[in-house]
Amino acid sequence: MFFRRTTARLLPDQPKRILLIRFGELCEVLRGAPLLVALRMRFPHAEIAWLTNEQAVSLLQGHRALNRILTVKNNWNHSWNEIQLLRRRLKRFQPEITLDLNGNFSSSFAAWISGAKFRIGFTGEYSGNPRLLNNIRVVPGENHEIDRLMQLLEPFDVYGCSVDFDLDENEVDRICAKEILGYSGIGLNRHYGILDTSVGSETSHWPKERFAELANYLLDQWNLPSFLVWSNQNEQAIAETIVQNGGNAAFLSPPLSVNELASLVRFATILVGPDGPALGLSGAVGTPCVGLFGATLASQVGPYGRFCRSIQVNSANPSLERISTSFVCGECDAILSEILEPAKKSVFEFEKPVRILVPAA
């Protein structure tokens, strides 16, 4: 099959303690949440812990499928003291099974020093670790990372699980979003869009003039004001320019924490932006979105949801400047025409996203 059956046969039917290992940026950690939910459904009485870096803790805290969170500093495996500290903490937890979601040396080494008898990970191109660190190795066969991570459940004879992030709305989210939107002049009782001005690189930057055009279009055609989110001073300056050019169609967000951003994304009618935290959150909480992808492949890491569309620029020329305003407006129209008349779909109805390749220039 896809893994070493000789070792997999010995997996306990009802393990007491399971450790998930997933380091990385916010979006990378989010893509591991459906695996956590499926694992909890398979083992409702197990104690499940998640080992991650400090940046991702805020979104995992309070997740009802998770019992505890363990954190490490970045580059922890470059320090002998940090290695020893983590080893002692993992030994106290005493996991029986680890699942290595990263597939690199750092994550598989953490699994190994935990002392777990069964260490599940990938083999092949998604495994950058020595063969002895993970002793149950799954051959990945899925293209999208969420589907691929779900394959780590195959040694438990779990196949074909639905994708569910289970990031529930709560009263704190509603109050937080209401305060921010009220302060900005929109108000929570009105439909609004979010435009993400994040700039990961030159090729992942959509021109600010087109953001302003899109904001005006959403207000004129759909009566949707646009809320502009940003994460650093450079992006703030871009957002301020868009607000100036967008007139009463665009509103500038204040500085936002990860949880505040998640609250605003949850209640938005639609989100448009490049690959980044806001776009990843939209798929996780069920908010319709249009993702703009250049060098990064939407087919592998695009938002996963019923009303998620990803516009992919050809890799030969990955600049987002090739995506016209009219093209993005058309995708927004396709989504908004479905969701503004009918009731908004449940956040738990996740389907593979529609992806559109920008025609060659």
The CATH class name of the largest domain reads Alpha Beta
Q: Level of helix content?
A: 25-40%
**Which series of helices and strands comes N to C?**
HEHHEHEHEHEEHHEHEHEHEHEHEHE
Q: What is the chains' assembly state?
A: single chain
Tell me, briefly, the overall form.
elongated
Secondary-structure blueprint:
Blueprint: H1 5-8, E1 17-21, H2 26-30, H3 33-42, E2 47-53, H4 57-60, E3 68-72, H5 80-93, E4 97-100, H6 105-113, E5 118-122, E6 136-138, H7 145-150, H8 171-184, E7 193-196, H9 208-222, E8 226-229, H10 233-246, E9 250-252, H11 258-267, E10 270-274, H12 277-285, E11 289-293, H13 298-301, E12 308-312, H14 325-339, E13 354-357
Parallel strand pairs: 1-2, 1-4, 2-3, 4-5, 5-6, 7-8, 7-10, 8-9, 10-11, 11-12, 12-13
Helix pairs in contact: 8-11, 9-10, 9-14, 11-12
